[in-house]
Design goal:
about 60 residues; alpha+beta; Ribosomal Protein L30, Chain: A; three-stranded antiparallel beta sheet; 2 helices; 3 strands
């Protein structure tokens, strides 16, 4: 199955709650955290909400 690698590159401090929740759902807690998630519509929707905070590698 295809996966995507997601890295948090900007801080969650001062962000609205739903952006913090999306980051937590992806397993990202602090700057520099990296996670591998399945490449599906649900994951892409979460990434879209916090696209300005993360770096994505397919």
């Amino acid at each position: 199955m295809a996966t995507v690698t997601i890295k948090l590159v900007k801080s969650l401090a001062g962000r609205i709650q739903n952006q913090k929740d999306c980051a937590a759902a992806l397993g990202l807690k602090k700057v520099g955290d990296v996670t591998v998630q399945p490449d599906n519509a649900a994951t892409m929707g979460k990434i879209a909400k916090i696209s300005h905070l993360v770096e994505v590698v397919k």
